[in-house]
Amino acid sequence: MRSRYSAFAVGDGDWLFTTWHPRTRPDEVRPDPATSWTGLEILGLDDGGVDDETGEVEFVALWRDPDGQEGRLHERSRFARRAGRWFYVDGDVD
């Protein structure tokens, strides 16, 4: 989760694509370079431990646009482990 947030923050679409589950990922991933991601707070975790194949992360990510408007993204993301690596599957946004 944190690596995906960092990839959004620095505009690393390749990492976002690579860490998105092949079953649900779009054809391409291009973060908006005009959006500045300014903070991440993890609110909760369900599963996702060493012996788990799935997990969920609830988080709030803060952003700012070029006009100075600020906002927040509140999401509950689902992840799945494949070949020992975690992949983003999908999420519910509030």
Automatic annotation (TrEMBL):
Show the coiled coil region(s).
none
Name assigned to this protein:
YchJ-like middle NTF2-like domain-containing protein
Q: Which organism is it from?
A: Nocardioides malaquae
Which Pfam families does the annotation name?
YchJ_M-like
Q: Which InterPro entries match?
A: NTF2-like_dom_sf (IPR032710), YchJ-like_M (IPR048469)
Residue stretches making up the YchJ-like middle NTF2-like domain: 1-91
